[in-house]
């Protein structure tokens, strides 16, 4: 199977897959930075996939082969798609569409070219077997054929989970302008090391994605969704109501530069958040000013041994301020957030 996830969090997805399949799964390849994890499940069970919170989508992988970067790759792609048997996954009378992607640079062809040759190959193979052409329906097809070129490798398969991307969870009724993908929120919580029966804080919770993911993951945690803008707090509440977890989250309107005034000192075990980005605010200096007050305040409310995960475009400044406040940098990596590669940092308050 091919699991698609947030680029930079492939190891988190591999771990979650192992947990959900309870050992009945083998990790074949973790494509770091590509948002791809290839797994082989001992059983054809797909229910665990529906429980997974780190994946955008999943597909049954039917063929994977090196095709190269040149335009002659398109002929090879067509042959591989035809021979893969993907057409047999389209029930007679149903429709299909090809969802093509190209990952990486240097190809002499586009994802549209891939979609075109794979679509034609699938139609030809189907017609050869059943004597007529299957219907192509781009919106809401019966079967979504997944075709992707990842570097010089071509993969073809059939989507089984997440034709509508998995990170668009049904609960998002209030659209915060800078909402975090729920898969990235999940990754923040996992990398912070959050657990059940602990106190989990998002100090700048916006539309509440991190708090809602925490409430969906942990049954018995105290979860605090803290944000300065009352409109976003109302939105977060609406989202939490839609996710049916509103009763398990505390919503607080407040300033993250003065967390201790509301929460008291040493009250929080784990924090996870995406503070505003300088680039998006249009002024990195205002973000640095915010960090200079917010990070020490976060330090004050964390319990010794507590960990806080943030995503940021201002990692040098965040690390400097965090160290000055007393935090240790427990972990750092790059993750993809929309069209940016940003830093995911985990700070730990020494125990
Ligand atoms: C990038 S957004 C968070 C989005 C959120 N993770 C979501 O998924 O909807 C950052 C949030 O930080 C809030 N914020 C900015 N400065 C703040 C402060 N001093 N105290 C509390 N919240 C603040 C903004 O109002 C904004 O909603």
**Helix proportion range:** 25-40%
- CATH superfamily of the largest domain, please? Vaccinia Virus protein VP39
CATH topology call of the largest domain: Rossmann fold
Q: What is the overall number of helices?
A: 11
Order of adjacent strands in the largest pleated sheet: 2-3-1-4-8-7-5-6
The low-confidence parts are none
The H/E string reads EHEEHEHEHEEEHEHEHEHEHHEHEE
Distinct small molecules: S-adenosylmethionine
Major sheet size, sense and barrel closure: 8 strands, mixed
Draw up the topology in text:
Layout: E1 2-5, H1 10-20, E2 25-31, E3 36-41, H2 47-51, E4 55-66, H3 73-83, E5 95-103, H4 111-130, E6 135-136, E7 143-150, E8 153-161, H5 182-192, E9 199-202, H6 209-217, E10 222-227, H7 230-242, E11 249-253, H8 259-263, E12 268-273, H9 278-281, H10 284-301, E13 302-312, H11 315-325, E14 328-337, E15 340-348
Parallel strand pairs: 5-6, 5-7, 9-10, 9-12, 10-11, 12-13
Antiparallel strand pairs: 1-3, 1-4, 2-3, 4-8, 7-8, 13-15, 14-15
Helix pairs in contact: 3-4, 5-6, 10-11
What this model shows, in words?
This protein has helices at residues 10-20, 47-51, 73-83, 111-130, 182-192, 209-217, 230-242, 259-263, 278-281, 284-301, 315-325; strands spanning 2-5, 25-31, 36-41, 55-66, 95-103, 135-136, 143-150, 153-161, 199-202, 222-227, 249-253, 268-273, 302-312, 328-337, 340-348. 34% of the residues lie in helices and 31% in strands. The model has no long low-confidence stretch (mean pLDDT 94). It is an alpha/beta fold and 351 residues long. The longest helix is centred in the middle third of the chain and has 20 residues, at 111-130. The chain folds into two domains: 2-161, VC0802-like (2-Layer Sandwich); 182-348, 3-Layer(aba) Sandwich (Rossmann fold). The chain has an eight-stranded mixed sheet with strand order 2-3-1-4-8-7-5-6. It has a seven-stranded mixed sheet with strand order 11-10-9-12-13-15-14. Helix 3 (73-83) runs parallel beside helix 4 and helix 10 (284-301) runs parallel beside helix 11 (315-325). The site of S-adenosylmethionine has 21 residues, from helix 6.
